[in-house]
Amino acid sequence: MKLFMPTKVYSEKNCVENHSRELAALGTKALVVTGKHSSRINGSLEDVTKALERENIPYMVYDEIEENPSVETVMKAASLGITEGTDFVIGVGGGSPMDASKAIALMIANPEHDERLLYTRTQVSPDGPVYPALPVAEIPTTAGTGSEVTPYAILTKNVLPDIVLTTIPEADVQAAFSHLEKKTKQSISHSVFPALALVDVSYLQTASRSGCINTAVDTLAHLIESHLNANSTEYSRIYSEMGLRTWARIKDKLLRYEIGEEERQALMRACTLGGMAIAHTGTSLPHGLSYPVTCEMGLPHGKAVGIFLPGFIRNYGNQEEAMKVLSLLDFGGEQTFSEYIRQLLGEVSIAEDLWERTMDELLANPAKLKNYPFMIDKEKLQRFR
Ligand code: NAP
Ligand code: FE
């Protein structure tokens, strides 16, 4: 059994100001990576730039990170970081800028490589190459992904259908077949744990109702998928169990949207615990099913994952364990849970052809099935919708 949580986490009000020295100690010139608007509105970006100025650390701001960040955006930011000689990266925002910051830190540290490095399998053998990344700090402004404490960075990338890749020489593929490319989301093949996470719940105050709900459901999914996971251990379940109990306390208020300071604190705590849990176990089938739905229907990440949670619980191979999770969440049974999720997220209908493709893609990808401890086939997966 292994416990590895190398990120130093501070969770308190005025966190960035309080720990500016530790932030500055990560390097000599920072690349601050953020989204287009929200970090200016919730004050997080100003807190970070002020902290760096106070510590006399020069910095550049890259504020073009989109939702579900793309490989192209990561490469643009990395190129700026390389030109400017930045030697550490600070992600400010939701999961999108935080994930992007990890991939950017990897690319700046390996300037001789192009974007193919992001998805180059590493550590396949004990002697396989491990590519270093620059030190990363994360300042979360959503209570959803837990990316501030995970080694994962999920990017949107263009892929060609297998039929093209297997029949045409690689050199000819890009130019001739780019019109056949489609988007998909995948975690980079490298593990980039942030060195520092500065978690200040104040930044959540500006979240919209739907933003708050969708990200809270992402946290719920991390906790459930980590607890019911082939890789879960007594250590990882300490995080997931505490997170599930914390989530249970706010679930009714979330439905009525009575979210004040105390509830935001609980959501943030559950979120970071969820990140610590999946850092050990990874996620499972609801996350695997969500990516095509996000890319093709444009559903926010948390919502796209959440719609598969009732099916996951209902069809989980060990119902005793699944019911234990529901009891940690204080739900009487599977039907109450399904009804709760339906009320919270509303009805979502997935077109038949997208659903067929989503299932086929998941079943063809062993990496996305390996965390589910039971045999799964299309007949079983059908019942997840
Ligand atoms: P996000 O994509 O980072 O942001 C969603 C929207 O919320 C953006 O419009 C953003 O605005 C806005 N926003 C952020 N903070 C706000 C605040 N405090 N107040 C008001 N608006 C705010 O959302 P997310 O759900 O946190 O992250 C989703 C991404 O994380 C997905 O790409 C998902 O795959 C990934 N993810 C990663 C992990 C992991 O372990 N690494 C786990 C789960 C999910 P701006 O664009 O202006 O900033
Ligand atoms: Fe997630």
State the gist of this model:
By secondary structure, this protein is an alpha/beta fold. It has helices at 15-18, 20-24, 38-41, 44-54, 71-84, 95-109, 162-167, 170-177, 209-227, 234-256, 261-281, 285-297, 301-306, 309-315, 319-328, 334-345, 352-363, 366-369, 378-382, and strands spanning 8-11, 30-35, 59-65, 88-93, 136-140, 154-159, 182-187, 196-199.
Query: What is the number of beta strands?
Result: 8
Bound ligand species: NADP nicotinamide-adenine-dinucleotide phosphate, fe (iii) ion
Largest sheet: 6 strands, parallel
Helix-residue proportion: 40-55%
CATH superfamily of the largest domain: Dehydroquinate synthase-like - alpha domain
SSE-based structural type: alpha/beta
What is the level-2 CATH architecture name of the largest domain?
Up-down Bundle
Major β-sheet strand ordering: 1-8-5-4-2-3
Please provide the ordered H/E string of secondary-structure elements: EHHEHHEHEHEEHHEEHHHHHHHHHHH
Distance between the termini: 34 Å
Low-pLDDT regions: none
Kindly estimate the percentage of residues that lie in beta strands according to DSSP.
Answer: 5-15%
Topology-level CATH name of the largest domain: Dehydroquinate synthase-like, alpha domain
Number of domains: 2
What's the shape? globular
Rg of Cα set: 20 Å
Supply the CATH class of the largest domain. Mainly Alpha
Average residue pLDDT: 94
Our count of helices gives 19
